[in-house]
Amino acid sequence: MINVPAAAEDFPFYLDKDAFKDSVLNHLHSTLGTIEEKANPQAWWKATCAAINERVFVGLSETHKAHSNIDTRAVHYLSLEFLMGRLTRNNLYNLGIFEPARDALAELGLDIEELCNEEPDMALGNGGLGRLAACFIDSLATLGYPAIGYGIHYEHGLFRQEFRDGQQIERPDSWRDYGNPWEICRPESIQKVPLFGYVETVFGNDGQLRKIWHPGEMVRGVPWDIPVVGYGGHTVNILRLWESRADDYFDWDVFNAGGYVDAQAEKSRAEAISKVLYPNDETPAGKQLRLTQQYFFCCCSLKDIVRRYKRRHDDFSQFAEQVVMQLNDTHPTIAIVELMRLLIDDEGLDWDNAWGICEKVFAYTNHTLLPEALEKWEVGLFENVLPRHLEIIYEINHRFLDDVVAKKWPGNDEIKRELSIIEEGSVRMVRMAYLCVVCCFKVNGVAQMHSELVKKDLFPKFYELWPERFTNVTNGITPRRWLKACNPELAQLYDDCVGIHWPTNLEMLKKVAEYADEKDFQQKFMAIKHKNKQKLATLIHDLMGIEVNPEAIFDIQIKRLHEYKRQHLNLLHILTLYRRILQDPNLDIQPRVFIFGAKAAPGYRLAKDIIFAINKVGEKINQDKRVAGKLKVVFMPNYRVTLAEKMIPAGDLSEQISTAGKEASGTGNMKFALNGALTIGTMDGANVEIREEVGDENIFIFGLTAEEVDLKLKNGYNSRDYYYNNPELKAVLDWLDSDYFTPNAPGQLSSIKHSLLDGGDPFLCLADYQSYIDAQQKVDETYRDKAKWAKMAIMNAACVGKFNSDRSIDDYVKEIWKLKQYPAVQ
Fold this sequence. Notes:
By secondary structure, the chain is of the alpha/beta class. It has 33 helices and 25 strands. It has two domains: 71-86 and 121-475 and 810-817, Rossmann fold (3-Layer(aba) Sandwich); 479-696 and 785-802, Glycogen Phosphorylase B (Rossmann fold, 3-Layer(aba) Sandwich).
C-alpha cells in the first residue's frame, strides 16, 4: 500500500519515494549501463528522466489510444516558436511526484536543484510568442483537449548570449549535443517536402486542366515527438518538431571520384533548414532560407494531418469537422496555400470544395501591430522557391478581389489595391497577414485593447467586410510552471490558504485578498519574497561578481530588446537617479537594483547599442563609491526561461513600459503580478486588463494613452521640444555624448541620443519621460511603507487569476476551436 499524500488521488502516476528511487537506480544500471560509483551528474539526470518517462510514455500511449478510438476533433497548433525551457521539474510537478523524487534523490546523495541544472533549456523560441505557445500546449493537455503542437526541431535554438566589454556576442545554443531524453524520433511518419522546380499545365483524362509541380529538390522532414504532460497526468499530448534532412544525402559516386566535400553538399543544404531559429534575413540567401523554413514545417505538418485523417476517412467531407488549425502569427501562413495544393493537386478536389474546407479549418492569431513585423515576401522569391504556391495565391487574390471586394465597393480600384494580397510597388510583395485574414474563419488579438486596434487600425477594411471574423482571446500563463514550480514556498502558502486545487483553478486565489490587511500574512508573504531575492542576489554574484542588496527594490525588466519595449527609457531613469545622487550625495532614495534580461536580434544595431549602454552605465555606477550602494545595475547574460524562473519570484517592480498601442499583450506582466510584484506600466496590451483586475491603487500607470500617441504622431511630434524644455532630460541625454561612461571613447553611447532626437523618437520615450520619472518617485515613496507595499503585492498576486492560460484555452475552445474534453487516464 503506497503512503499517499492528500492530493495523490489527483495524480494517477503517483509513486512514493522508495519506488522512484528504485526506478532511478534501475535505469542507471539497465538504460545507461553504469553504476553509482561511476555515474556523473549528467548520467544521474538522464536516469531520473528515464524514471519519469516510465510514467509519461504510459500516459502518452493511453492518450493516443483514447483519441484514436473516439476519432476526436483536434486542434493543431502551428507555431515557428516553442520556448519550452526545461522539462524535468515541470514534468515532476505535473505528475505529482516532485516531493518523492526530491526525497529519493536526496537519499542517493543528490540535490534535485543541481540535477535539474544539468538540463539545457529547450530554447526553440525568441520571446513571448514562443513562451505563449508552450503555455498553451501545457493547458491543452491539462484540460484534456485533443491537440498537437507543430514546429521545427532546430539544431540550434535562440543564440547563447555573452557580453564582451559590454557588447552582446552571439554564440550557438546547442541544446541537444548529448541527446534529449524527452524526445522520441518517429521515422514511420517521415514526410517529403518539394522545393523549387517548375509547374506544368496538362489536360487530365476528364478533359480538365491540371497542374503538375515538378520540384527541383526534395527534402525529408523527420518528426521528433516531445510529450506534453498535463497537470495531473490525465492527458499527455505531443509537440511534434520537424528536422530537415536530405532526401538523398550522400553521393557515393562523387565521393569515390574524390569529391569528398561535394558528396555531402545536398545534405548540408537540407540540414540548413532546421539548423537555426530565425536565420538572419538581411541577405537574399537569408530570406530564401527563412521562407523555406516556414514552408518546410507547414508542408510536413499538413501532410501529417492529412495522413492521420485518411486513416479513418475515405474522403474529405468530414475534414473540417475533425480538424482545426491555429496559425500562431503569420509564420505558418503558407499552410493555407499548402492545404489548397494538397486538396486540388494530390487529392483531386475542385477549387470551390478545397477553398470551402480551408475557410473552415484555419484560424489566425495576430501578435503585433508593428507594420514591419507583418511578414511580406517578394513575389520573385516565391516564384523561385514555391512556384505552384504563387499560382494558388494569385488565384485566391483574384477571386477575393472580384467576388468579395468588388461587390462591397464596386468600381473602387483604390480599395482593391489597398486590400490585395499582392502589394504593388517597385518590388511586388505577398502580404501574408492579408492572406490569413482572407482565408481564416477567425482572427483574434491577444488582449482586449490589442484586438480593438487590430480591427480599427490594422485591418479596418477587412473588419468592414467580415466583422464576425474578428474576436479577442486575452493571453494567459500556466500557473504550474510560473508559480507552483518556480516559487514553491509561495505555492505552499497558497495551499495553506485556499487548498491544493488552485493550480487548475487560479480564480481560487481571490480568497487570498481577504488576508491582504493581516500583518501576520503580510510578513509571511514578504518573507518568501525576501528569500527569493536572496537567491537571486546569490545567483547574480555567482554569475557576474556583483554584490546586490536584497533589502533594495528589485526593479526588473525582462523581455526581448526592442525600441518599442523601451529599455532605453528605463536607462534614462537610471541616469536621472545617478545624476541626482552625484549632485546631492545625501539624497534620500530607497536603494534600488535595476535588473535586465534581454537578447537583441543579431542584425538590430540600435538594440545592441542599448544593451551596450546599459552595461557601460551599470559598470560605472556599480564602481562609484559616491553612490554608496543606493543604485546597482545588472544586465544578466543569456536571458532564457530558466533565468526568468529565478528572476520573476524575486521581482518587486515589474517594468512594462512599452509605448501605448505597440505591445499586443505581454505575458511577463502576468507572471510578475502572480508572484507578487507591482507593475509600473503604460496603458498598453494586457496592462489595461491587469489594472482592471487589481485596481488603480495597486498599479503604477504613467504615460500617454494609445489615442494620445496617435494624435501626437499625426500632429507632427517633435522630440526636441521635450529635450529643450526639460533641463534634467537634456542633461542625461547629453551625458551619452561624453566619454564619462566610456573613458577615452566619447560618443560610443551617442546612437541612443541620436535615435531620440535625429531619429525622431518613434516610440515617444521623451514624451513619456517626465511621467515615468514621476511614477518612479511614487514607487520610491510607496516602498517606504512596508505594510502598504505588502498589501499591494498580495492584491496583485490574488487578483490576476484571469490571466491563466487555462482560461485562454477555454476561450479559444468556445469561440474558435469547438473541442470536447477527453482526459485519457483516470
